[in-house]
Amino acid sequence: MDSVLYTLPENIRSRNYVVASYYIKLPKEVDVLKKAASLAIGQTIGTWIPIPGITEDIRERYMGKVVNVFDIPALDLETQVDTPEREYMIQIAYPAVNFGSDFPLMLTSLLGNDASTSAQVKLLDIEFPREFAEDFGGPNYGIAGIRKYTGIVKRPLLLNMIKPCTGLTPKEGARIFYETALGGVDLIKDDELFGNPTYSKPWERVKEYKKAAAAAYEETGERVRYFVNVTSGAGELTENVKRVQEAGADGIMINFAAVGYSGLKQVAETAEVPILGHAAGSGMFYEGTASGMSSPLAAGKLARLAGADIVMVNTPYGGYPLRYQKYMQTLAQLTLPWYDLKPSMPSIGGGVHPGMVEKYMHQAGNDIVLAAGGAVQGHPMGARAGARAMRQAIEIVMEGRDFAEASGEKEELSAALRQWEYIKG
User: Which residues form the Ribulose bisphosphate carboxylase large subunit C-terminal domain (predicted)?
Assistant: First the structure.
């Protein structure tokens, strides 16, 4: 066996290799070792055909290496299965020097299922060496930084998004902002559909919403931070960030699924305020069973690596059929220790209402943002009451009281629970 093309995992763990794990399904007659080798070669030195210029030194330094092949289910005998197709997990090590801290080149290398390799694979995970991961930088604030920035030490943060999603001028949006802020939300963001229309430029919204935040502070004594959506094309993105920061933005929101991880990384390298990474549309990365990548990787690990301080996370409870296991794995990718990279704060979205607060806090802990949209704006007593109901639910859980019993003491929360069912945590 070619010792340059194939290697044991122990031989590359301490070296500067990025290890990618893939799922692949093949006709039973196809040699999976050869298929893995074609991917390792095709996505690095580029050809399986001997050509002038490919030296042994180039093969050793720049060619991918097949690390492992696992059968799914675990098979060792031909008599154990009789199906026309076989499933595998394969692991390939890529020399990090080939792409460095460059997201487009890295993903081009790792997701190479084009005609040159003919490997239809789904990228399950990427294992990064310490030096390589820390070159990306990760979040500037992280969970501890967000808590210091907001002054909220222990409880989950409460976020609301301005509704309706589009069609509001800055002054119209500011009126909704003010009413919502009075109820006790901590963060207010734009909807992901609302970016840079002609009738509401993001820097104009910052100025008007900051006035609304100041007016609410005079009444409540609590500061509400506004995260403005700067998502746009590459040519406008930098200008948007510059202008909203000049206008006094508290935070920046960017849809990394649309602008790419490199767009998020670019903003993180220059932004002075926290960044909320949105994953709207990321289903195109992971909804396929035989291509793309896994959801914890697409919506979790890579967003943290690119520098999002807060990351919007889908749940299994809002109508989207995300698996509970993947939801929890995404939370883990955002928050568990990872070299010296700061953790990203998960922002739980989809199916967030007062009756779900206990469940979310018990599953994900207190270091989360609860992103309640319709439950605030659609509260039967208005947005101010909707925000209060969410805060009341959070306080009951933080105090460790019986939720069903304590909720009856709160008018706004009781009204919310009559409209949305209480789901025990």
Answer: 142-420
Strand order across the 65-72 sheet: 65-72, 85-95, 17-27, 121-127
> Distance of CA 104 to CAs 98, 262, 306, 368, Å?
12, 7, 12, 30
Helix (H/G/I), strand (E/B), else coil: 19 = strand
pLDDT, tens digit (0-9, with 9 covering 90-100), for 284-330: 999 999 999 999 999 999 999 999 999 999 999 988 999 999 999 99
| Fold adopted by 9-136 | Alpha-Beta Plaits (3.30.70)
pLDDT bin (cut points 50, 70, 90) of residue 178 is very high
For the chain, give every domain's residue range.
Answer: 9-136, 142-419
Q: Distance (Å, rounded) from C-alpha 63 to C-alpha 302? A: 24
d(CA 352, CA 42): 45
62: pLDDT strictly greater than 70: yes
Give the pLDDT score at 50: 63
Give burial (CB, 10 Å; 0-12/13-18/19+) of 124: middle
Name which of 98, 104, 94 is nearest 128 in CA terms. 94
Q: Write down the residue that tokens 């993180």 correspond to.
A: 268
Are 282 and 298 within 8 A, CB to CB? Answer: yes
CA torsion 199-204-206-211 (nearest 10°) is: -110
3-state secondary structure 267-331: HHHHCCCCEEEECCCCHHHHCCCCCCECHHHHHHHHHHHHCCCEEEEECCCCCCCCCHHHHHHHH
- CB 242, CB 206: distance < 8 Å: no
Q: Mind listing the pLDDT tens digit for each residue in 128-155? A: 999 889 889 999 999 999 999 999 999 9
Catalytic residues: 163, 278
Among 151, 106, 78, 157, CA closest to 365? 157
DSSP line for 315-384: -TTSSS---HHHHHHHHHHHHS-BTTBPPPEEEEESS-SGGGHHHHHHHH-SSSEEE-SHHHHT-TT-HH
| CA distance linking residue 374 with residue 327, whole number of Å | 21
For 270, other C-beta atoms within 10 Å of its C-beta total 10
Domains 9-136 and 142-419 share a fold: no
| Average pLDDT value for residue range 37-57 | 77
